[in-house]
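Morning F.,

Quick status update on the modeling queue. The single chain you submitted on Monday has been processed. Sequence for confirmation:
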Amino acid sequence: MATNRLLSDIPATVTTALAEDLGDGDITAQLIPAEQQASARVISREEAVICGVGWVNEVFRQVDNRVRVNWLVSDGDRVTANQPLFELQGPARSLLTGERCALNFLQTLSGTATISAYYASLVEGTGVKLLDTRKTIPGLRNAQKYAVTCGGCYNHRIGLYDAFLIKENHIMACGSVASAVATAKRNEPGKPVEVEVESFTELQEALDAQADIVMLDNFDHAGLRLAVQKNKEHPTPAKLEASGGIDANTLRSIAETGVDYISIGLLTKDCKAVDLSMRFI
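Structure tokens below.
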């Protein structure tokens, strides 16, 4: 997925976040004289992979374009505890008004990037690609998808519009795997068609229908290895994706079965925000 597409909704996302925080004005910031200038520094209190530069910049642009943001790191950089991330200069009121919104974006997206980097490190050298899912924070789909890439993982489909994922209920409604796949390719030629399967019979049907990707849902290790072998022997092999119940303890061994992709919902739904702090200097 092109990075520009994932970053395209930053202004709208920031506008929404500021509106819910500011309401009709920051009454506490009004305690400070309007002409008072200030400088501030933001640090990470823990090791992390940074993501959110564009969102922080947009927060302060919308709050007050007189604020200057000087970054000391970039998206994707690994930082250590107490490392400075960026500095701010401008009206004291504006620095304080934008602080929480900016840090909310930065801590959440850095948390997503950090856990993605950890999981990517677990499969290093296997050749498998780790994929995110649609299990994202509402309103932050593109932002979290971008953060996943900053951590060294990859994007599955962004939404319901850019790729097919045909599951059990779709198959039942369409009548068969072959019918569902054929209709998908006819309706949206060129868009990836993926079929979720739970058995070797369904795998065979998906391969015979010439699905582009087959998701192997909750297959055990032996089943995954056998599926890889059957796929290699098929005249029109697909890409294989393992999914379901995968965690840090099982990830490496699943990657070593030979599947092409592993999808993990916790990259975006179970991330822990990075601890950040802003202080005037």
